[in-house]
């Protein structure tokens, strides 16, 4: 039954972008409001290093439990110097990414933006550091002046937006000339041509593109038991099966789609021209 409802919901989201955006806003609001666990800091599928390809991020022991989720950020920023820069994350969720980027990459200013007021409230309570801010706002109407940031980061959030074209134009607006846009999310294979057409039309230049589906699947495998345990402990009973889907545990629809190549996880590094 859950599978049928989720498939129907996904179809509605695909065909009606306004419904997708509103329903996700409602969902993230509800999650921030009802599940206040301070130690739940990330909401992404994670990134595991494949053997022999790259080294895991060097982290303090206290951050190790969030390693896989943080590595989805770290693989994006690994080749960009963030020290002393002004960095914006759009769709910052529960703030773990913005806060760990601030801690490990030391930008001068790190701003997390999210349209869920409840998530922003949690972030303001749980992540306090000099130069780290969280602000409520919409990815499709970014509330900052033109050319305010050196780097914009966007992790597993854009699939919720009603217009990728509007979002890309907003990113381009707030980036300084020569600034970087670091972007990662999942898409169905048939959606990728359109995504890349929009990126090209935005004028942002793609510097690197990677398909990281195997890294994400490996992370979901490694994190499976922890995810199951957390859901059973913290999620109200009537929502548990929907949460298994949301969390991408083994046998969830998204896990099976990633495994079958019916969903791909991509990452891009882009630059705004000087
Ligand atoms: C799957 S979560 C990822 C959160 C975070 N990036 C992470 O990796 O933990 C997606 C986030 O995007 C936010 N989001 C979705 N649509 C948005 C929009 N139009 N404007 C701002 N934030 C949005 C949601 O509220 C949610 O916090």
Characterise this structure.
The protein is α/β, with parallel strands linked by helices. Helix content is 45%, strand content 19%. It contains 10 helices and 7 strands. The chain has helices at residues 2-15, 17-34, 67-77, 96-105, 117-126, 164-174, 192-202, 213-234, 240-247, 253-260, and strands at 86-90, 109-114, 132-136, 149-155, 175-187, 205-211, 264-271. Helix 1 (2-15) crosses helix 2, helix 3 (67-77) packs across helix 4 and helix 6 (164-174) runs parallel beside helix 7. The longest helix is centred in the last third of the chain and has 22 residues, at 213-234. The mean pLDDT is 93. Residues 21, 24, 28, 42-44, 91-93, 96-97, 114-116, 119, 138-140, 155-157, 160-161 line the site of S-adenosylmethionine.
Number of strands: 7
Low-confidence stretches: none
Major β-sheet annotation: 7 strands, mixed
- Helical stretch tally: 10
């Amino acid at each position: 039954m859950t599978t049928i409802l989720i498939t129907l919901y996904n179809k509605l989201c695909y065909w009606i972008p306004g419904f997708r955006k509103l329903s996700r806003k409602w969902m993230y609001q509800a999650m921030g409001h009802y599940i206040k666990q301070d130690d739940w800091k990330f909401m992404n599928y994670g990134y595991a290093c494949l053997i022999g390809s790259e080294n895991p991020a060097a982290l303090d022991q206290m951050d190790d439990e969030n390693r896989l989720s943080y590595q989805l950020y770290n693989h994006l920023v690994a080749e960009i110097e963030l020290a002393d820069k002004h960095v914006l994350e759009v769709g910052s969720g529960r703030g773990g990414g913005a806060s760990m980027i601030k801690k490990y990459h030391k930008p001068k200013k790190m701003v997390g933006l999210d349209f869920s007021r409840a998530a922003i409230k949690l972030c303001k309570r749980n992540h306090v550091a000099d130069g780290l801010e969280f602000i409520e706002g919409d990815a499709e109407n970014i509330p900052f002046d033109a050319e305010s940031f050196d780097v914009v980061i966007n992790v597993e959030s854009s699939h919720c937006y009603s217009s990728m074209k509007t979002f890309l134009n907003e990113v381009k607006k707030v980036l300084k000339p020569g600034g970087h846009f670091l972007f990662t999310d999942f898409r169905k294979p048939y959606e990728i041509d359109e995504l890349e057409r929009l990126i090209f039309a935005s004028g942002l230049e793609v510097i690197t593109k990677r398909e990281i589906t195997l890294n994400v699947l490996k992370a979901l495998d490694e994190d499976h038991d922890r995810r199951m345990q957390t859901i059973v402990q913290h999620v109200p009973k009537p929502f548990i099966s929907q949460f298994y889907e949301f969390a991408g545990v083994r046998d969830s629809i998204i896990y099976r789609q990633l495994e079958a190549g019916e969903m791909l996880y991509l990452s891009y590094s882009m630059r705004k021209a000087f």
